[in-house]
Amino acid sequence: MARASGAAHPAAGARGESCVVTGGARGIGRGIAERMVARGYAVVLTDVDAAGAVRTAGEIGAVAGLGLDVRDPEAHRAAAVEAASYGVLTAWFNNAGVGDDGRLAELSEEAVRRLVEVNLLGTLWGMRAALAAFAESGRGGDVVNTASLAGLGPVPGYSVYAATKAAIVSASMSCDVESPRGVRVHALCPDGVQTAMLDGQTPGGLGNLLVLSGGRILGVDEVAEAAVALVGSRRVVRSLPPWRGGVIRASALAPSVTAKALGVFVARGRRALQRRAGSN
C-alpha cells in the first residue's frame, strides 16, 4: 500500500473521530470525503490511484491520502490503523468499484474476475476491517457501502456487475443484523450517476441504454450527500431516487415481464443517447 499524507486541515479531527473513504480520488468518493471533512472528521482517503489520492487529500483537507488496492485485505487493515492514529474510527465508506458492462457471455474472464474481486471482495474486506476497528474501540460506527439499483433487480447488459451489487446489498443487510449494538451497516443504491465510470462504458451497449432509459442521470454531489446522510441512521438500504428502487424491485418479482418490456426501455435509452450526443 503506497502512502503519503495530505495537507492537514485546521478542522481535521475536530470531533476526535476519523473515517476511511475508498475510491476517494474522484467522483462520488471525493464528494463523500469532502463532506466528512466538513463535518469535522479526520478523513483518510484511499484509491488505487495513489498519486490521485494524495492530490485529492491535499485539495480537500483530508489528513492522509493512501494508495490502496481494495482486493488486498491487509491494505484495509493498514488503512484502519492509519485512520485510528488521527481519532477514533467511527465511519467507513466502501465506495471503490469498477463498472464493466456487457452480457455474461461477452465479458472476458479478466473482466468477470475484476468485477467480483473489486466490487464484492473489496467491499467485504473493507467491512471486515471496519467492523474489527469498531469492536476494538468499543465506540461502534457506520459502514456505508456504495451498491447500485442494479443490485435490486434484473439488469440485462450488466449481469456480473449487477450480481456483485446484489451481493453487497445482501451482505449489508445480514451484517447489520449480526453486528452488535452501536454498529450500523448501510447500502446506498443509486441509479446511473454521471461519473468517469459511466463515461467509460460501451456507448449504445445494452446496459448503457438501460441506464439512460431511466431519465435524469444523478449527479455526484447528490449521491455523496445521500451516502453521508446514512451515517448515524437506522436505514439499511436506500435507493436513489426512491421511486426507481420500487420499480426495479417490482421487476425482480416478474423478470419475464421485464424481458418483454426490454425493447421499450432500449428504445428510450437510444433516444436519450441521441439527445446527449446532440447536446455535445
TrEMBL record:
What is an example of a GO molecular function annotated in this UniProt entry? oxidoreductase activity
Asked if the keyword Heme belongs to this entry, the reply reads no
Q: Where is the Ketoreductase domain?
A: 17-191
Q: Which InterPro entries does the UniProt record give?
A: KR_dom, NAD(P)-bd_dom_sf, SDR_fam
* Entry keyword annotation includes Oxidoreductase: yes
Keyword entries, A-Z: Oxidoreductase
Regarding protein family, the annotation reads:
Belongs to the short-chain dehydrogenases/reductases (SDR) family.
Q: What is this protein called?
A: NAD(P)-dependent dehydrogenase (Short-subunit alcohol dehydrogenase family)
What is the native source organism of this protein? Nocardioides panaciterrulae
